[in-house]
Design a protein that fits this description.
Helices cover 65% and strands 11% of the residues. It is mostly helical and 303 residues long. The strands form three sheets. It has a three-stranded antiparallel β-sheet with strand order 4-5-7. The chain is elongated, with a radius of gyration of 36 Å. The model has no long low-confidence stretch (mean pLDDT 81).
């Protein structure tokens, strides 16, 4: 292997290790801070054990100065006593400072480690949020372009992988079979289609009922309450909606939601986005439904 190849390999490995260290820097800094707290306490305790000795010596010297000043001899005046007292106190302060210097130094490093960990995480969170906002903005613009060019139905078809189903419709001439496109529930359940923030409301939910119509009534009540909360408070997190519906919270749900005055300016569970299943659900013919929430985006960027 040539020297240049060895140099390139070493540089690559060092670069990778540096990158890994940067990746885990918040944890490493936090660890340093935790160790630093313990070390600071130990050093401070050790310094305190020696403090009595330092103060005792200073007090002894003060006594000697006072005794000499009390004699009032021409060789040692009150002015000399004052100067010696100040000198003694300054030396005592320096000795105390030297005692606690290691603890103070480690304490400063500890504070710096904790601060550095927080700064790194804050910057990463800001970068992640900015990246999400950019992706979300691009995705929404893409959907707008699809709707403008091909219509809402095509947008829904592309997003959820709509499949054709037959729907029985009552007419004056009797029941007629109509072919409609509906959300591919099987593909959604298998994760073949991105749900983003959507969730299934089905028998696995604690609030789900087998009784006809109760599920639709429950969801409408939750949606109305959510909109009342939005109008009253001005914002609603997605995780709060999950809580209302008895669904598991998500990491994204702690960041995204709705802010009054943005986009649709209302909360929609998307029950009727799927004409086939949504209408059957509203009518009580279908007990389960896929909910697709019209989230505005990251709340902290919208306020």
């Amino acid at each position: 292997m040539s020297l240049s190849a060895i140099k390139s390999t070493v540089t690559s490995k060092v670069g990778r290790q540096v990158l890994i260290a940067q990746k885990h820097s918040p944890v490493l800094l936090l660890g340093v801070g935790i160790i630093g707290v313990g070390t600071t306490v130990v050093l401070a305790c050790k310094a305190t054990l020696k403090l009595d000795e330092v103060l005792g010596e200073a007090e002894k010297i003060d006594g000697q100065i006072n005794d000499a000043a009390a004699m009032e001899t021409p060789e040692y005046t009150q002015e000399d006593a004052k100067k010696d007292t100040i000198t003694n106190r300054a030396k005592t302060a320096m000795r105390i400072a030297r005692l606690y210097a290691p603890a103070i130094a480690v304490g400063c490093v500890t504070v710096g480690a904790f601060t550095g960990s927080h700064v790194v995480l804050a910057r990463r969170n800001a970068a992640i949020t900015a990246a999400y906002v950019a992706v979300d903005k691009g995705f929404k613009q893409y959907r707008k372009n699809v709707v403008a060019e091909l219509g809402m139905d095509k947008d829904r078809e592309f997003r959820f992988g709509m499949v054709e189903r037959e729907l029985a419709v009552d007419t004056d001439e009797g029941v007629a079979v109509k072919t409609v496109k509906a959300v591919n529930g099987e593909a959604l359940a298998k994760g073949e289609i991105a749900k983003i923030y959507g969730r299934f409301f089905d028998e696995y939910n604690q609030n789900w009922e087998r009784s006809r119509g109760k599920n639709a009534m429950f969801l409408r009540s939750c949606q109305n309450f959510a909109n009342d909360l939005l109008n009253a408070r001005g914002h609603v997190f997605l995780n709060e909606i999950y809580d209302m519906l008895g669904m598991e919270r998500s990491k994204a749900g702690a960041l995204v939601g709705w802010v009054k005055g943005n986009r649709d300016n209302y909360i929609d569970f998307g029950i009727l986005d799927d004409l086939y299943m949504g209408q059957k659900f509203i009518n009580g013919d279908e007990p389960s439904i896929f909910l697709d929430f019209n989230v505005d985006g990251p709340i902290y960027d919208l306020i």
